[in-house]
Amino acid sequence: MSRVKVIGGGLAGAEACYKLAKAGIEVDLYEMRPVKMTPAHTTDGLAELVCSNSLKSEDITTAQGLLKAEMRELDSVILQAAEIARVPAGGALAVDRALFSQAVENIIKSTGKINIIRQECASIDNNTIVATGPLTSDAMAEEIKKLTGAEYLHFFDAVAPIITAESVDMSKAYYGARYGKGSADYLNCPMDEGEYKNFIKELVGAATVVLKSFEKGDVFEGCMPVEVLAARGEDSLRFGPLRPVGLKSPDGKKAYAVVQLRKEDRYDSMLNLVGFQTNLTFPEQRRVFRLIPALANAEFVRYGVMHRNTYINSPEALTITLNPKNSPDIFFAGQITGVEGYMESAMTGMLAAIHMLRRLKGKDPVAPPETTMCGSLCKYIATAKGGFAPMHVSFELVSPIERRIKDKAERRKALADRALKDIKEYKNTVLQDIEVSL
Ligand SMILES: Cc1cc2nc3c(=O)[nH]c(=O)nc-3n(C[C@H](O)[C@H](O)[C@H](O)COP(=O)(O)OP(=O)(O)OC[C@H]3O[C@@H](n4cnc5c(N)ncnc54)[C@H](O)[C@@H]3O)c2cc1C
Prior knowledge:
The chain has 12 helices and 16 strands. It has 438 residues and is of the alpha/beta class. The chain starts with a strand and ends in a 6-residue tail after the last helix.
């Protein structure tokens, strides 16, 4: 079997290295720190957690908990290290970050197959997994552009919140197209004058996230947060993204402003607040956006964010098995694929390695089923429509269960049971087929 190159020793790169090494593959891991640092990392440790030390919930009826259970099934090195470095945090999995990073390094080195090269890598050849993260070096970004097309590599997130469709009060919202043109794809949420003015006042006064020093000045380039636009004048939103013209409500009432929601997924379970890219803190987004009458009980699947983040427009440039469309022997992993979050990044590292192992054995890679957290997120990043923005795992992405279960907790338990059964089957068929065991 050939040697494989893994570029980037973060969460995704570490998972990829471990899985390849356990299958007997020799790996050259290129990590540029400490020779060249990113603006957020502060150590030379592998899998450094750049911000929070929490890997989130372990409860399998949450998306994060189920993702972890699936990753345990696939033998995650990040989760092995997290057990060693665990600190008490209620139902969440939190770690001592220095111990955690050391444990990851110890475990992957103990395979005896990993050659760590402390050097910036700026070329991508066949048999390579690229896992250079949201702060990919400039030289590597140029190389990625050559592979994917310059227009498909983004450097900033500008993400509007997504809410569940079932949480919208449909007595105060209606589907309809502007001037009746085209199909009625948008869900319109009208506001009267008093509601709108109060909304603008609260939006402009709301607390925002403090940007990191390396993000200041750059993040708003070409894309203005909704609260900044609102601060330009009381009418700026209703003459902009909230304009009511051409929208007729079924009761014939004229709205003063209208918030439009766009369908986000194939199952019509998620809706995106159009034009609401924002830097408000998460509690403030919940408080202020719930002032829109139809969204008084909105349940947020993803909050809006705006930050520095290098990521590929995956629906255009990558396949569901994380390789560029015309390069079957190169895989991407981690945040750069358009997934969001520590565990999601690590998960794609495992999958990129599994796909690579199949290629090395002359077989086509196979994505996990859409019934799993892993598979549904890969499907999303490979097929999302509209302006693609990074995404984390969510029950709303998973293919729905056939029989309707009204109770949310019961439904999630059924989805979790199905996902765990299916990920076991995935492991057994996809890896047994190439005679690899975990
Ligand atoms: C400031 C910031 C804070 C974040 N906070 C959180 C959080 O609290 N919770 C959460 O879930 N997610 C958070 N994220 C998002 C994301 O989960 C993390 O960035 C995560 O570390 C991504 O994993 P990764 O393996 O893709 O990239 P990384 O962990 O960043 O690893 C990439 C590695 O590649 C190296 N590298 C880059 N270019 C090259 C090159 N050319 N050659 C060799 N090596 C290279 C880097 O030094 C780095 O070690 C945050 C992101 C940022 C930027």
